[in-house]
C-alpha cells in the first residue's frame, strides 16, 4: 500500500509540475495578491472572528452569571461551579458533534459549496445570539451555546478549506495566518464586551455574522469546488487573480482534483502520507493546547481577578487580545520568510518560561507570601509577553500547517478528523480547569502545562517538517517518503 501511494503521489507531482512551472513563468503581476482575494479572505474571516468571540464568551459572561446582583445577572440565581464548567465546555462538545455531523453529511456540503454552507451557519449564529440577548434561564444559555458550538465546527472546516483553496502557493501561508488573526480579534472583542451587560454582549456577538451575510453576496465560490464546471471555475479564478489568463491555474486545479472518488474519514488512515498528515496535525494542535492558551482565553477574567493585579481580568484580556492581533499580523509576514518550524520552536520555548513564572507568582499569592499590591504588575507583564511569543508561532501556525499537510482530496475530511481530536482535548481542559483549581490551585495547573510545553518543544523539533514555499504535492511527497 505504501509503495502504491508513493507512486500515485509521484505521478500527480509530475503531472502538476509542468503546469506549476509554466504558471511561474508568467509575469508576476498576473498572480499578485489581488484586491478580490483580500476581500474574499476578509469577508470569510468575519466568521473566524465570530468563532474567536465564542471561545472567549465564558470569560466575559461567567463573572456576571455568578453575581448575586440581579441588575448584573439576568438569571434567577448565581450559577454553580458545575454549571460554570458546563458553560465553558459545552460549545466544544457540540463543536465536535458538528464536525462529526459534517463528515456524515459531507455530500450536502460538497453539493452546496463552501460559500453557501458558511451563509447558512452565519444565519443560525445570528439567531442564537439574538435569543441569548433576552434569555432568563440557564437552560436557554446551554441550548444556544450548543447550537453555536455546532456552527463553530462547520466554520472550522469550511472556512479553512475556502481560504486555502482561493489562495496561491506563494501567499497561502499569509492568507491562513490572517485567518488565525481572526481568533484573537474575536477574543479581544469579547473581552471589551465584558465591560458591558449581558444583553449588550450578545448583541455584539451578532455583528460579525450579520456583516458576513451582507457581504457574502459579492464572494466568489471556491475554484476547487467549481472545478467540474469549467466556465464558473474560470470566472471565479479571474475575479480572484485579477487577470483573464487563468488557463494554466485551472489545469493545475483540475489535475489535482481529477480523482472523483468519494472519500470518507477512513481514507485518512489508508496511506502513509495521510496518516503522517493527521499525526503531525494532531501534534501541532496538542502543542497549542499544552501552551495553556485555551484555558487562559476562556477563564481570563476569573483567573486574573484573583491575581492582585493592577488591572482587572477583563482589562488584561483586552490587552492580551490587542497583543495577539499585532503579533499574529507580524507572524503573517514572518511565516513566508523565516519558515513555520523556527517560529514554532521560538514560540514554544518562551511559552515554557512564561508559564513557569506565572505559576510561581500564583503560588506566592495563594500562600500569602505576596500580600500587598506592590507586585501587581507581574501578571500583566508575563501575560503580555506570553501572548507576544504565542501569537508568532503556536497561535496561527498549527492551523496554517494543517491546511498544508493534507492533500486537496482529503483536506476537509482530514481537518475535520484533526479538529475532533483537538476539541476532545480542549473539552477536557476547559471542563476540568475550574474543578482542579478549586482543589489544588491555579499554580499547579500552570506548572503542569509548563511541563507539557517542554515535551511539545522536543516533539516539534524532532518531527515537524518545514513546508515554507512548497506546493501541496511536494509536501505529500515528503510525507510519503521521508516522514
Automatic annotation (TrEMBL):
It holds the Pfam family Sugar_tr. It is a multi-pass membrane protein. It is found in: Cell membrane. Coiled coil: none annotated. SUPFAM superfamilies: MFS general substrate transporter. The keyword Membrane applies. It comes from the Eukaryota. One of its GO terms (cellular component) is plasma membrane. Keywords: Cell membrane, Membrane, Sugar transport, Transmembrane, Transmembrane helix, Transport. Residues 36-468 form the Major facilitator superfamily (MFS) profile domain. The chain crosses the membrane at residues 33-53, 85-104, 116-134, 140-163, 175-193, 199-219, 278-304, 316-335, 342-365, 377-401, 413-433, 439-464. GO terms for molecular function: transmembrane transporter activity. This is Major facilitator superfamily (MFS) profile domain-containing protein. It comes from Phyllotreta striolata (Striped flea beetle).
Amino acid at each position: 500500500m505504501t509503495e502504491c501511494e508513493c507512486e500515485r503521489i509521484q505521478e500527480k507531482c509530475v503531472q502538476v509540475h509542468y503546469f506549476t512551472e509554466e504558471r511561474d513563468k508568467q509575469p508576476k503581476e498576473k498572480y499578485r495578491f489581488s484586491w478580490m482575494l483580500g476581500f474574499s479572505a476578509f469577508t470569510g474571516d468575519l466568521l473566524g472572528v465570530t468563532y474567536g468571540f465564542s471561545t472567549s464568551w465564558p470569560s466575559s459572561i461567567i463573572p456576571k452569571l455568578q453575581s448575586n446582583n440581579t441588575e448584573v445577572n439576568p438569571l434567577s440565581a448565581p450559577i454553580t461551579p458545575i454549571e460554570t464548567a458546563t458553560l465553558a465546555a459545552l460549545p466544544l462538545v457540540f463543536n465536535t458533534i458538528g464536525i462529526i455531523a459534517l463528515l456524515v453529511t459531507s455530500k450536502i456540503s460538497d453539493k452546496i459549496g463552501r460559500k453557501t454552507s458558511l451563509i447558512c451557519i452565519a444565519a443560525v449564529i445570528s439567531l442564537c445570539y439574538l435569543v441569548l440577548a433576552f434569555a432568563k434561564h440557564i437552560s436557554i444559555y446551554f441550548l444556544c451555546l450548543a447550537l453555536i458550538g455546532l456552527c463553530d465546527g462547520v466554520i472550522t472546516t469550511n472556512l479553512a478549506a475556502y481560504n486555502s483553496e482561493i489562495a496561491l502557493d506563494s501567499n497561502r501561508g499569509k492568507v491562513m495566518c490572517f485567518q488565525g488573526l481572526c481568533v484573537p480579534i474575536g477574543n479581544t472583542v469579547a473581552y471589551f464586551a465584558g465591560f458591558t451587560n449581558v444583553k449588550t454582549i450578545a448583541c455584539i456577538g451578532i455583528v460579525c455574522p450579520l456583516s458576513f451575510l451582507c457581504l457574502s453576496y459579492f464572494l466568489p465560490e471556491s475554484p476547487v469546488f467549481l472545478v467540474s464546471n469549467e466556465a464558473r471555475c474560470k470566472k471565479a479564478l479571474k475575479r480572484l487573480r485579477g487577470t483573464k489568463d487563468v488557463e494554466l491555474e485551472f489545469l493545475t486545479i483540475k489535475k489535482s482534483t481529477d480523482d472523483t472518488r468519494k472519500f470518507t474519514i477512513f481514507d485518512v488512515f489508508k496511506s502513509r502520507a495521510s496518516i503522517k498528515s493527521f499525526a503531525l496535525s494532531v501534534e501541532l494542535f496538542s502543542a497549542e493546547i499544552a501552551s495553556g492558551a485555551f484555558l487562559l482565553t476562556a477563564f481570563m477574567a476569573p483567573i486574573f481577578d484573583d491575581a492582585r493585579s493592577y488591572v482587572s481580568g477583563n482589562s488584561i484580556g483586552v490587552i492580551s487580545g490587542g497583543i495577539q492581533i499585532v503579533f499574529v499580523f507580524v507572524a503573517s509576514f514572518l511565516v513566508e520568510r523565516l519558515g513555520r518550524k523556527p517560529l514554532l520552536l521560538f514560540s514554544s520555548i518562551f511559552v515554557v518560561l512564561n508559564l513557569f513564572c506565572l505559576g510561581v507568582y500564583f503560588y506566592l499569592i495563594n500562600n500569602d507570601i505576596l500580600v500587598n499590591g506592590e507586585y501587581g504588575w507581574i501578571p500583566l507583564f508575563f501575560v503580555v509577553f506570553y501572548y507576544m511569543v504565542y501569537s508568532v508561532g503556536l497561535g496561527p501556525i498549527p492551523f496554517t500547517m494543517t491546511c498544508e499537510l493534507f492533500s486537496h482530496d482529503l483536506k476537509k475530511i482530514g481537518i475535520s478528523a484533526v479538529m475532533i481530536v483537538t476539541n476532545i482535548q480542549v473539552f477536557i481542559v476547559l471542563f476540568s480547569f475550574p474543578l482542579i483549581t478549586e482543589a489544588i490551585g491555579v499554580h499547579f495547573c500552570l506548572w503542569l502545562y509548563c511541563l507539557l510545553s517542554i515535551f511539545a518543544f522536543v516533539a516539534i523539533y524532532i518531527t515537524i517538517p518545514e513546508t515554507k514555499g512548497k506546493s501541496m504535492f511536494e509536501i505529500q511527497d515528503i510525507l510519503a517518503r521521508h516522514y
